[in-house]
Design goal:
The complex is a heterodimer of chains A (387) and B (51). Chain A has 387 residues and is α/β, with parallel strands linked by helices. Chain A has one domain: Aminopeptidase, CATH 3.40.630.10. Helices cover 34% and strands 20% of the residues of chain A. Chain A has ten helices and 15 strands. In chain A, strands 2, 3, 4, 5, 10, 11, 12, 13 and 14 form a nine-stranded mixed β-sheet that branches. Chain A has a two-stranded antiparallel ribbon with strand order 1-15. The longest helix of chain A has 30 residues. Chain A is globular, with a radius of gyration of 21 Å. The model of chain A has no long low-confidence stretch (mean pLDDT 96). By secondary structure, chain B is mainly alpha-helical. In chain B, helix 1 runs antiparallel to helix 2. Chains A and B meet through helix 1 of A and helix 1 and helix 2 of B.
Chain lengths: 387, 51
C-alpha cells in the first residue's frame, strides 16, 4: 500500500513537471514576436481589422503593409503564412516588406495571415518551435507555426465543417484552416471572420491580383506550381513559361478545381473582381516518410528517405543530394511575384505595377535570405513592427 | 463564450475527474496509473486555458 502510494506520488510529480515545462515552452512560443522592419517602400501600415471590426483586439488581427507608388497603376495583395508551417511564405513576405519600393501601382503584403496558426505548433509531429536564418548581422529567429489556428482561439471543432456559403462538407479541422474558410462571413467562426476581413480588403482596395504564398510536400502533385482559376490562367501560364526560360526553374500551372470550395484561389476569384493565384514551393519537411523533423530538414530539405523515393521516381519534383534549400524556394517565390506583375501589365497595361528592390531567384540563391533582412537595431523604432 | 463551449469545458472537467478517480483507485498496474495521468494532460491544459 505504502509502495503504491510512493509510486503514485512520484508519477504525479513527474507528470506535473512535464506539464509545467511543456506549458512554459508553448506559452513562450505563442508570445514570441518576430520583428519586421517596414522598408523604404512602406508608405502605411494598417491592421486587417480596419476592414472588419469584428476581429479587432483578437489574436486573429494582423499587420497589413502598404507600398504605394506615386503613379497610379495596378494593385497586388500578397498573403503569407496562411499556413505558418510553410515557412517559405513568411520569409518571402519579410524580404518584400523590408526591400520593395513601388514606383507605380500598389503592393500590399500581409506577412502573418493566420496569426493564431503562426503561434500554434504540432507537438505530436515533433515540430521545432523556432528556426534561425543567418544574416550578415547575426542570426534571426522566427517562430515556426502550424497549418491551422490554435484550438485555444477557436474551439470546439465541429464533427464536419460545412463550408459557407457553398455548403460543401469538409474535414472537421478545416474550420481552423484559412485556406478552406474563404470567402468567410462576419458572424462565422474566427477563421471565417479573418477571410471575410481579407475579402473586404480585396473589395474595398480594388485589388487586381491576390497571391497566396505556400509550400507543399514533394510527394504531393500540387507542388512547385501556380494554382490559378480560369480568370487568372493566362497570366499564370505566361509566368510559368517566362520564369522557366529566363530564370531556369520549373514552376508549372495547376487549374483551380471549381468543385473544391474554401480555397483562396477559388473563392477570391468567385467573390471579387480580383484575380487569385496560389504559389507552392516544395517543402520536404512536410512529407511524412522523412527522418527527424529538425530545423536542418526544414531549411535544407535534405533527407535520405526522400532521396531514396526520388530514385524510385515517386516524387513530383526533381530531388537530389542537395535537397531543396530554403533560399531556392524563397527565390522562386520572389521571382514569381515579380513575373506575375510583369505579365499582368502585359495583359492589362493600366494595371502595371513598377517595383524595385525585390531580389530575384538568382540573387536569393547566391546571397541567402538573411542578406535581404534588415537589422532592427539599426533602424528607427517607429519602423519596427512585430509578427 | 457560447453554450456549447461551456458544455465542452464541463465535459473536459468530468473526464479529468474520471481519470483522477481511476488513478486513485488503481492499486496494481503501474502502467495504467501512468496512462491515466498522461491522458489527463491535454484535458488539464485545455481547462487551464494556458495562453
Amino acid at each position: 500500500m505504502i509502495e503504491t502510494r510512493k509510486i503514485k506520488i512520484i508519477m504525479l510529480t513527474l507528470v506535473a513537471i512535464i506539464t509545467v515545462i511543456a506549458g512554459i515552452q508553448l506559452y513562450q512560443h505563442r508570445h514570441y514576436d518576430v520583428p519586421i522592419v517596414a522598408g523604404p517602400g512602406v508608405t502605411k501600415v494598417g491592421k486587417l481589422s480596419d476592414y472588419y471590426e469584428g476581429i479587432k483586439g483578437t489574436i486573429a488581427d494582423t499587420n497589413v503593409f502598404f507600398m504605394e507608388g506615386e503613379e497610379e497603376g495596378g494593385s497586388m495583395l500578397v498573403i503569407a503564412n496562411t499556413h505558418s508551417n510553410e515557412i517559405v511564405a513568411g520569409l518571402t513576405a519579410f524580404m518584400i516588406v523590408e526591400n520593395a519600393v513601388v514606383e507605380k501601382g500598389r503592393l500590399i503584403v500581409i506577412p502573418q495571415f493566420n496569426n493564431s496558426g503562426g503561434r500554434n505548433t504540432r507537438a505530436g509531429d515533433g515540430y521545432p518551435l523556432y528556426f534561425d536564418i543567418d544574416t550578415p548581422w547575426g542570426s534571426k529567429t522566427f517562430r515556426m507555426g502550424n497549418r491551422d489556428a490554435s484550438p485555444l482561439d477557436q474551439w470546439p471543432d465541429p464533427d464536419v465543417y460545412v463550408h459557407y456559403p457553398e455548403g460543401q462538407l469538409l474535414s472537421y479541422m478545416d474550420v481552423r484552416n484559412t485556406n478552406r474558410t474563404w470567402p468567410g462571413r462576419s458572424d462565422g467562426p474566427l477563421m471565417e471572420q479573418v477571410c471575410y476581413a481579407a475579402m473586404e480588403l480585396i473589395r474595398n482596395e480594388n485589388i487586381d491580383a491576390t497571391l497566396d504564398v505556400h509550400g507543399a510536400e514533394t510527394l504531393f502533385p500540387v507542388t512547385n506550381c501556380i494554382v490559378a482559376p480560369d480568370k487568372s490562367m493566362r497570366i499564370a501560364t505566361m509566368t510559368s513559361l517566362t520564369v522557366k526560360s529566363k530564370e531556369g526553374f520549373d514552376f508549372h500551372v495547376e487549374p483551380s478545381p471549381s468543385g473544391m470550395r474554401g480555397l483562396s484561389h477559388r473563392e477570391i476569384g468567385d467573390y471579387s473582381d480580383s484575380m487569385p493565384f496560389l504559389v507552392e514551393a516544395p517543402l520536404p519537411f512536410l512529407d511524412q516518410p522523412t527522418g527527424p523533423k529538425t530545423m536542418d530538414l526544414l531549411l535544407t530539405g535534405r533527407d535520405p528517405f526522400l532521396l531514396s523515393l526520388s530514385k524510385k521516381g515517386m516524387l513530383f519534383v526533381p530531388y537530389d543530394e542537395e535537397g531543396w534549400p530554403i533560399e531556392r524556394r524563397a527565390g522562386q517565390h520572389t521571382s514569381v511575384v515579380l513575373e506575375l506583375m510583369n505579365q499582368m501589365a502585359r495583359q492589362y497595361p493600366e494595371k502595371e505595377i513598377v517595383v524595385s528592390g525585390i531580389p530575384k531567384y538568382k540573387d536569393v540563391v547566391e546571397n541567402g535570405i538573411g542578406y535581404y533582412l534588415t537589422d532592427p537595431s539599426t533602424v528607427d523604432e517607429s519602423r519596427i513592427y512585430y509578427e | 463564450m457560447s453554450v456549447i463551449m461551456i458544455f465542452y469545458y464541463i465535459l473536459s472537467v468530468a473526464l479529468i475527474g474520471l481519470l483522477v478517480w481511476n488513478f486513485i483507485r488503481e492499486k496494481e498496474s503501474v502502467t495504467d496509473m501512468l496512462l491515466y495521468l498522461m491522458v489527463a494532460i491535454p484535458f488539464v491544459l485545455r481547462v487551464l486555458r494556458v495562453k
